[in-house]
């Protein structure tokens, strides 16, 4: 069905390249999940940049997103200088990043340093903070207007230090999402993408409860990926997420019928970031291996 759709000149192919639950694993690593004795090398952040460049060489202009938990855990030894994160985001030209649990784990000042140096929009519709309040952004690809918003799970406060919890407040996600979806539609959004670190069960409930969301790219639920996109039966919202620790990246293609103003099809795949397949970008490698 998708092949037939692609024959139409009025069908736009909006491509999304995303990561979730990177947990600060920007430097090259090894795929121990494949072979404990001789694990294949992974390029992580440096190979992610190459994946984006490969897609551009094929004539695509992907929307580059992180659905949260890009930052490391706030554990001893897991600290990552903010300039490494901001340098990576800037090199890859991320279009948006969700403020997930880990984005708040080192405090608002640390997060603001990353935002200022990267110049990347960090999104959350339900975070109440004068400095971090940015529910969504609007952008365009292939003549299609795209609204991208985000929500931060209310479980965040269970995982961040008590002194950090004083720097922000979280509101209920449902009214925040409803208001955001309405505003994006009123702003002319043809496709609405929600970045969420609430977990699959919560994302499914959101998809069934709030119509108008085309895609939810999820995070949280450590290690549990979705190898193929899942379409909810009620509102036909597409749910998708990849593996953790930057071992892979997700690619989601949305085929939008510009004549009839409908999402006509989609396909997705999870790509393992093998260093031999996606050579490591030297600029990003220099940033993450300081």
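^ structure tokens above, recovered residues below v
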């Amino acid at each position: 069905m998708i092949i037939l759709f692609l024959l139409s000149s009025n069908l736009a192919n909006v491509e999304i390249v995303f990561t979730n639950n990177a947990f600060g694993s920007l430097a090259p690593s090894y795929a121990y999940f494949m072979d404990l004795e001789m694990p294949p090398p992974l390029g992580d952040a440096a190979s992610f940049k190459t994946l984006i460049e490969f897609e551009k060489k094929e004539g695509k202009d992907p929307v580059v997103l992180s659905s949260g938990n890009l930052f490391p855990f706030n554990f001893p030894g897991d600290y990552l200088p903010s300039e490494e994160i901001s340098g990576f985001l800037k090199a890859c030209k991320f279009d948006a990043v969700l403020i997930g649990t880990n984005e708040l784990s080192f405090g608002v000042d640390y997060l603001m340093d990353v935002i200022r140096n990267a110049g990347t929009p960090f999104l959350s519709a339900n975070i109440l903070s004068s400095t971090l309040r940015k529910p969504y952004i609007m952008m365009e690809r292939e003549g299609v207007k795209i609204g991208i918003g985000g929500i931060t799970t209310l479980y965040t406060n269970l995982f961040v230090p008590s002194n950090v919890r004083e720097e922000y407040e979280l509101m209920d996600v449902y009214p925040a999402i409803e208001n955001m979806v309405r505003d994006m539609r009123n702003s002319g959004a043809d496709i609405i993408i929600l970045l969420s670190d609430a977990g699959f069960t919560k994302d499914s409930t959101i998809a069934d409860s709030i119509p108008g969301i085309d895609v939810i790219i999820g995070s949280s639920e450590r290690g549990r990926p979705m190898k193929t996109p899942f379409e909810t039966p009620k509102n036909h919202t597409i749910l998708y997420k990849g593996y953790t620790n930057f071992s892979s990246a997700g690619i989601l293609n949305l085929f939008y019928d510009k004549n009839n103003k409908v999402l006509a099809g989609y396909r997705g795949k999870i790509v393992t970031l093998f260093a031999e397949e996606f050579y490591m970008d030297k600029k990003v490698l220099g940033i993450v291996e300081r």
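The chain has one domain: 2-288.
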